[in-house]
Backbone:
């Protein structure tokens, strides 16, 4: 725990059998109270490995619900078991668990209620092997999102995120997409609700076992991001009144 706050790490898993143990072994358990893994109907033995590692909460989807659907299950479970600081860590070892203490400290000291591990701050993205077309798309989309969202982040597309309990209790994340654009819908909701977001420099690793969407899915994701950004812009101007921006709690 951190100053009486329960720290929970959530792992959205899909075919993560080759990298799960390496990721799990680096989690700082002197700080982390609980780990939840959700296996989104993997074709390998991810869930079995998770149980053998001693992960207390191993959830398995009977059919694939998508990346966003996986996160919904995880965040709801984290709230159910009393998580006060919830960190999403991908079990494909693309992001280092060694940043967890820094992210927990920022939230635990009430500096920011949300923290992102940014691959763009510093030189982490290209040095870690991010393909050039993904880097260029990342920069273009982030520029557009900052402009339309009236906010400033170094990137919106990292999968390394930490949230305080009040954030998860406030935004309507359960109403979001089950696909990859879920991440951007969530950040849009967080910004619209008035929560501040901090960032820490995060090295990343691109390698064969690390999960990555193909070019077609990347194009679909990019169009989805632009849709969310425009929705946020119109909502902020009062032109539309969308369900996704209605808070779960006052």
Residues:
């Amino acid at each position: 725990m951190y100053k009486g706050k329960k720290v929970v790490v959530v792992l959205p898993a899909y075919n993560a059998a080759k990298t799960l143990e390496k990721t799990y072994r680096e989690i700082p358990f002197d700080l982390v109270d609980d780990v939840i893994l959700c296996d989104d109907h993997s074709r390998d033995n991810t869930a079995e490995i998770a149980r053998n590692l001693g992960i207390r909460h191993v959830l398995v989807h009977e059919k694939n619900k998508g990346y966003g659907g996986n996160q919904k299950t995880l965040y709801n479970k984290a709230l159910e078991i009393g998580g006060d600081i919830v960190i999403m860590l991908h079990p494909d070892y693309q992001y280092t668990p060694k940043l967890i203490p820094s992210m927990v400290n920022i939230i635990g000291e009430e500096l920011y209620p949300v923290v992102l591990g940014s691959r763009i701050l510093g030189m982490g993205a290209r040095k870690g092997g991010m393909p050039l077309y993904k880097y260029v798309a990342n920069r273009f989309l982030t520029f557009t999102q900052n402009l339309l969202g009236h906010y400033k982040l170094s990137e919106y597309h990292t999968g390394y995120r930490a949230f305080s309990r009040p954030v998860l209790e406030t935004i309507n994340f359960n109403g979001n997409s089950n696909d990859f654009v879920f991440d951007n819908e969530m950040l849009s909701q967080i910004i619209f609700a008035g929560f501040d977001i901090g960032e820490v420099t995060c090295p990343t690793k691109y390698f064969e076992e690390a999960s990555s969407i193909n070019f077609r899915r990347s194009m679909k994701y990019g169009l989805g991001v632009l849709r969310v950004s425009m929705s946020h812009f119109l909502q902020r101007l009062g032109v539309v009144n969308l369900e996704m921006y209605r808070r779960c709690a006052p």
Summary: Strands lie at 7-13, 34-39, 57-60, 85-88, 114-118, 161-164, 197-201.
